[in-house]
Amino acid sequence: MDTQTEDTKPASNRIAAPSVLRRYGSQLGIIGVGLTMWMVFMVAAPIVFLDIDIYVAFAQTSPQFGIIALALTFVVITGEIDLSFPSIMALGAAMFCIATAYGGLPWYVGLVIAFATGALCGLFNGFLVAKLNIPSLVITIGTSFLFRGLELVLMNGTGVPLTAEEYPEMHAIFREPFFGFPIQTLWMIILGIVAWTLLNRTRFGAHVFLVGDNQTSARLMGVNVVSVKMRAFTLVGLFAVFAGLMTSIYGYYFWPTTGEGFLLNTIASVFLGGTSVFGGTGSIVGTFVATYIIGAINAGVVSAGINAFYTQLVFGLVIVVSVVLQTLIERRVRGQSMTGR
Amino acid sequence: MASDSNATSAPIIELRNVSKTFGEVRAISGIDFKVNRGEIVGLLGDNGAGKSTMVKTIMGFHRPDAGGEIHFKGKKIHDWSVARARGLGIETVYQERALCEKQPIWRNMFMGREMRTKFGLLDVHKMRSEAARLMSEHMGFTSAAVHPDNVVATMSGGEKQGVAITRALYFEAELVVLDEPTMGLSLSETKKTLEFIANIKKAGRSAIFIDHNIFHVYPVVDRLYVLDRGKVAGTYTKDEISMDELIESLYRVARSGKME
After folding, report:
1. Which one, out of A58, A181, A262, B216, has a CA that is 20 to 30 A from the CA of B30?
2. Which domain holds residue B237?
3. With contact defined as beta carbons under 8 Å apart, do B212 and B205 qualify?
4. What is the ipTM of this complex?
5. Is residue B125 part of a domain?
């Protein structure tokens, strides 16, 4: 279907634009998958899915992992992965609690300390991966334990209540609806626009694509590969802290286990969104839409009357099928065989 | 040296006693090399003679071993890097092309030197239209594959090389380094490339031209360096040596390592 435009006019020797399908194929695909799933849920459970409440619930919970997925998209495009962000969520939120609840500092100082912590964690990951050239899949498992361990030691394994009376500003920023609109999704939109602009309209973003595509070529043309990767990991650190604070405030309580259960949702959002496992291609729009699809699967499966044990099954199917399809499409574009050999 | 006659200004680039060692392998050793303003310099040598290592050292991709010096327009440069070299006006067509194949042509064309608007954001629109103009006007490409939004992976070998060459020439560099630029090109594309090199000289700019094909190199260059096993085996101005003599001595150097 996508080759039809080229096959029908082999003799014409004029410069032609690639078809819309080829350029935006993966993004259109993910939007299609999202709409189809929505239809299925509507038919299967009309009472639930014709009611506004379920959408409000999605809009409040999906951004908690989706915001990190936006930043993780950058790291995956550079051809790396970060598995330590759940621990960064917790460590950043813990530093906020230490500064404000134990240290008595005002909330805004706590925010600065929390984000600085996230930036440092990301920078550390980036240093190990880019400067020391260690495979990110391995080393971020290590730093994940490191950050989590540090947080548990600092907090002595205890939680901190984050009530609206004690932290009115934090609740206004991260939880209370903005003129009736779920503020979590408002943040997701704002940070989505920031991430889109960063990826598509800045030199940093351009270099993210180049580094993930062919590191040697990028270096030969003067791109600072180490700096690009370190900045991508730092972005994940910052966004992870944002999500960690949002999640904690949403629950009115900081749990020392914050971030657990976020790993797969977040990574799935990035891959389902069409960002390539091999690096070099990916999109923020895809990640954004995929976040809400992932968020809907859980609630959708349950409210459609299917046994909750099926959630993981559906979840796994969606990830495996999307990554396999995306790989096959990519090989087809490059004219390789189905197995890539 | 005969080229000293136009040494009124300092050479564009000069290497003094430059060596480069990878582990235990010394790829180039004690290289003295210079390119004067408006001069096309040919670099000949067998496979493994150190041509590409030298090019990558000139471009700042490899850092020379201690003791080697790189001078740009008479000034010694300490923190030499690819970005620095390009900033000073040196562009290269690498043997391995240095393209990012999953990216559209326009991203490749402006790789590392992306255009920005006055707000500091990428000027995607301008990069697209410039890439389209360059590919059709400069290289004369008309194939459907060379639309600026098309990814490089879908292009033919000659078209890919065309992108690499057009990219090097676009920035109007003072010094263009061409490492086997005619590799994989069709007859007419090769002719076009050689015309480009001749035009570099007409515009008063300089070039380093590396190719296996002496019949391509000899007609367009002013001066020649012959590299052998990482060392400069000889240097000639064109009036010192005829093409036949050159071929003869290249055979000799390949066998014995000596020019004479």
Report:
1. B216
2. 2-97+171-256
3. no
4. 0.88
5. no
Q: Which domains does chain A have, with CATH numbers?
A: 26-328 (1.10.3470)
pTM to 2 decimal places: 0.89
Give dist(CA B224, CA B49) in Å, integer. Answer: 15
- Is B130 among the domain residues? no
Above 50 in pLDDT, residue A256?
yes
> Between chains, do A217 and B92 touch, taking CB under 8 Å as contact?
no
Residues 153-172 in B contacting A (C-alpha not used; CB under 8 Å): 153-154
Residues of B in contact with A335 (CB under 8 A): 153
Q: Place A338 in a pLDDT band, splitting at 50, 70 and 90.
A: low
Distances (CA, A) of A226 to A52, A197, A218, B101, B218: 46, 22, 11, 21, 41
Q: Which residues of chain B have a CB within 8 Å of the CB of A17?
A: 147, 149-150
Provide the number of structural domains found in chain B. 1
| B257 burial type by CB count under 10 A (0-12 exposed, 13-18 middle, 19+ buried) | exposed
Q: Do A222 and B150 count as a contact with CB atoms less than 8 A apart? A: no
Using a pLDDT cut of 70, give the percent of chain A over it: 89
Contact yes or no for B146 and A334 at CB 8 A: no
* Chain segment A103-140, per-residue pLDDT in tens: 999 999 999 999 999 999 999 999 999 999 999 999 99
User: Is residue B166 situated within a structural domain?
Assistant: no
CATH number of the domain at B198, please.
Answer: 3.40.50.300
**Angle subtended by helix axes A263-272 and A310-333, to nearest 10:** 30
Report chain B residues whose CB lies below 8 A from the CB of A281. 102
Exposure string over A60-74, b if 16+ CB within 10 A, otherwise e: bbbbbbbbbbbbbbb
Q: Which of B96, B98, B136 sits opposite A15 (nearest CB)?
A: B136
**What is the pLDDT confidence band of residue A41, given thresholds at 50, 70 and 90?**
confident
pLDDT digits (tens, 9 = 90+) for B164-184: 888 888 888 889 999 988 887
User: What residues of chain B, 105 to 124, have a C-beta less than 8 Å from chain A?
Assistant: 107, 111-114, 116, 120-122, 124
Candidates B53, B86, B99, B102, partner chain A, best to mutate (most A CBs within 10 A): B102
